[in-house]
Amino acid sequence: MLIMWSVVAILLVCFAYAAYARRNETLEEYTSNRGRTGALSIAFTVLGTCVGGWMFFGVVAIGYEAGVVGYMLGLVYFLGLLLLGLFAPAIKNAMVATQSDTLDDFLYKRFGRSVQVAVATVNICAFVAFLASQFIALGDFLKVFSGLDLGLAIWIGAVIVISYTAISGYKGVLRTDIIQFCVVLAASVFMVVFLFRDVSVVQVSRLPASLFTGLGYGSPFLIGAMVFLTPSFLVRSDLWQRIASARGAKSARLGFLISAPIMLVMYVIFTSIGIGARAVLGEGQQAALSGLEWFVRAAGSEAVMIPVAIAVFLAVLSTADSYLNIVAVGLVKVIRCKDWDEYERSGSVAISKRLIRWTSLMTVIVGILGIAMWRLLPSIVDLVLASASGLLVLAPALVLGFFSKRRPSGPAFWSIVVGAITIVTVMCVGGNPKTAFVPGVIVSVAVCVLGWVFTRKKKETAPDRA
Q1: Measuring CA to CA, which residue among 123, 93, 94 is closest to residue 109?
Q2: Running DSSP on this structure, what letter comes out for residue 248?
Q3: Do residues 265 and 56 touch, judged by C-beta distance below 8 A?
Q4: Domain locations in the chain as residue ranges
Q5: Euclidean distance between CA atoms 423 and 129, whole angstroms
Q6: What is the pLDDT of residues 389-443, one digit of tens each?
Q7: pTM here?
Q8: What is the distance between the alpha carbons of residues 29 and 27, in angstroms, rounded to a whole number?
Q9: For residue 72, which of 60, 141, 336, 382 sits 20 to 30 Å off, Cα-Cα?
Q10: How far is the CA of 69 from the CAs of 213, 233, 235, 293, in angstroms?
Q11: Weakly modelled stretches of the chain, pLDDT under 50
């Protein structure tokens, strides 16, 4: 009971801050906090977004099921954030030049409305899946620490996150991420030290050898993750939103470079907890809950569990609110595109308030979609890996928008649509959600390249009307 009262107290503080942040909040602050965020804040909000309930449940599940595969994924995240850090100045400058707040906004100004709609649709599917994974994590948290039925726990958690995000917007997300991640980091270190004090080398040595080969999910997954998941960071709208919020190109780059090694440490911590849970608890446990179940058994008293319980709750909150916000903003930019264009021309306060109201409404709708997605695909590992890698169907259009002087919208649009349809088709016919992105990305690249070549030849062979 003491744990739940602690969570309620934290929640009340978050709601109070969200209400405070909403006072006199401008549209830019509500959607991106454009050009106002320093490097350290960028680093913490990136970490807050990427860690989330995924660490406490998803990465622990990977450690429990597949062993050192979790370390490999940590390396993927490390390299992905470094890669984004290297490209961050170019992305920031391009966003400033086009007055863009998000990835779909940038591609709209490069290719037009049809591509923006395609990007927004892919983002909805991917980030709603991300969001569903956080609802699962929040439900698991409430189930472990309160004994509630999982379905009821997920509904309660979803209502909490949706309400908080609808009130606060991106500015509230950004400010709370800093405090939340500091708590999560401290509790994570405490948790791993506390749990491993009594784990012997003998216990670990008795685990199946497959946990230590890196092939726990098979070689196609490992190769696909290294080759495809690493560059997927370049096409994540939530991370582009962080770049847009940076004060300048240097702040954006430094923020990602700071976050990369800390992210790797987090993966090492939680993968190790998953492996340790397998060694101590044995097989037959629910993988996603194994770390917390181990901790609850080892803690013995509620007072010891409070810091970790609060950290789990804050981790889920700091990620779920980001996903809700980025999808809601993208939807409003499509649905209320005329209002948004008019606001950019006039800066009308009335239009600004209207768009904020619409974004709040979309936040609620996206939250409901996240709950529906949980019902369709209840595995937190499948949800996160499938959605993160699936975003790569946006990569060919992004490369075309960045590096090509000739930007035909047809190849960009169809590469996104056909690539996304391929992924969904592979999953519907029984393909592995963890590797379904591979054929989708290959098809997306092929469509974009062939379309670009075809439109170029068509232009070259067109009759001279002069």
Answers
A1: 94
A2: S
A3: no
A4: 2-381
A5: 14
A6: 778 899 999 998 888 777 888 999 999 999 999 988 888 887 777 677 788 889 9
A7: 0.84
A8: 5
A9: 141
A10: 8, 19, 23, 21
A11: 462, 464-466
